[in-house]
Amino acid sequence: MQIKVIKGHGSGNDFLLIDEISNTYTFTEKNRAELARLLCHRETELGADGILFVMNSEHADARMRVFNADGSEASMCGNGLRLVARYICELYGRSEAVIETMKADLKVSKQRDLFPDVHTYQVEISPVLFELKALPLNLNQPTLYNERIKELSTELRFTAVAVPNPHLIAIVETEQLQSGIQKQLSEKVNGPNELFPDGVNVSFVKQLDNGAIYVRTFERGVGFTNACGTAMSASSLVTCLQELNPFEQPITVYNNGGKVQCVVHKLARDYKIDLIGNATYLYESTVEVNLERELVEITDKKELTEEGIYEKLQSEVQQIITKMLKG
Ligand SMILES: N[C@@H](CCC[C@H](N)C(=O)O)C(=O)O
After folding, report:
1. pTM over 0.90
2. Known catalytic residues?
3. Which of 63, 166, 189, 205 could connect to 235 by a Cys-Cys bridge, CB 3.0–4.6 Å?
4. What is the distance in A from the centroid of ligand 1 to the CA of 68?
């Protein structure tokens, strides 16, 4: 079959966007998982952290489904939603839209560029759930807030939150970032294990100046990625709850692929987060895919020029991260 894809990224978290609104593909559920495993594989010419399928919605402007590189489906994807926001706003000539995701309809809108000439979108991250059954996390307590999990580490304290995909977050110091502990415990909770039967995204967060944090995430179904939008949003929330950053004010979140801003809103009964960052396209291409024989061939490719502009933001951020890690 022939498939048109757009390769893009949000903070270096890269995706293949497939438009099922304008094209009449007849993918089965099995096909979507197979396409994710095949096209995202880094040894193919494409390679990505996941696939974003953009579909018609019965009640919203469009629907997003996100598949991780291992073929598992995630309920949400913050960086991916910014790409879908851009795609739908440009497709319909709008500056805002509502996108249906697995568990919620989310507002998205075009914003002033975060960095000169970098397309910037804001997406809503909601619902926010602290009940352990929402992740799920099998511990004999209702929630986990800044607490130890003895099976994972004797020194780190974790908060568990679903937004609504599952996240485990630890606020750490530079030495802990530089140790191998994040990889070790992330692999444990994302392999067969009793604590997190569905796996979990694991983030280490370091507070920088007031109003700025650094977040590194090991993503469920992928491994370490440059950035994870839902993780940066959940991490911002955790820093507000620990009074490291204020609610209702922009928090700059540095990551290995760039930077975003998060604003954490405290509502009457719960929280919601605005995630604001780039939606950068790298190229558009047509691929010939044979799922049975696991073959992919790019038959047409149009490079776009946006990455050169984004690299300026990226090099500024790299200097900040290097300085931070040197202490
Ligand atoms: N990178 C995404 C999250 C993608 C899904 C995640 N790996 C999961 O399985 O929950 C983001 O930007 O939020």
Report:
1. yes
2. 77, 228
3. 205
4. 7
